[in-house]
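Hey, I'm writing a tutorial for new members on how sequence and structure tokens pair up, and I'd like a real worked example in the thread rather than a made-up one. If someone can provide the structure for the chain below, I'll link this post from the tutorial.
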Amino acid sequence: MEHTLYVVGIGPGNPDYVVPKGIETIKKATVLVGSERALEDFRAPGQTTYAITGKLSILAEQIQQELVSHDVVVMVSGDTGYYSLLPYLKKKFPNQPIEVIAGISSMTFAFARLGEVWHDADLMSFHGRQPSPEQLAYREGKKMGFLTDPEYNPAHIARILCESGWPASTTAAALERLSYDDEHIVRGTLESLQDLEGFGHSVLVVLG
């Protein structure tokens, strides 16, 4: 019998924001894979678990071994189709049945927290990559959302945007720990956010 690799988006992280189908799949898992934080929040007694670390090649070997005998459920933060582990898993397991259960991306969650729509926003990531100068160019009324990392945090990105011609008075907001009790949101301008500390893995929303 061929076993299935399930990829489940767990949204911003709080179990309250995982779709029911995702929760059901996670609870029924024999083998569960996810970040340390996700495993703490979602694992059930009796499940075999593997933590996602920087050593993805080792993780892929562990998943391959488990798929011989069991279905495997991999939890990914945010939405499965938005800068997730899904492309890597599809490349590593091209002949394996894969079922994807979408979640809420941290980006859409951030816009919701601000009471803003995102259908007219340019969504980009500074997490492990850098948008082109053309993507960052100023245009009046332009709206953008960025995933950040410790190097390219909101303060750093705010400086880059100002150097790229964005008015320092442009409205912006940095959001981290979304959906958790210690959720932290700072609203301001590109100028004020340049002094913001922390907010490594977070979301920056710019409302031009």
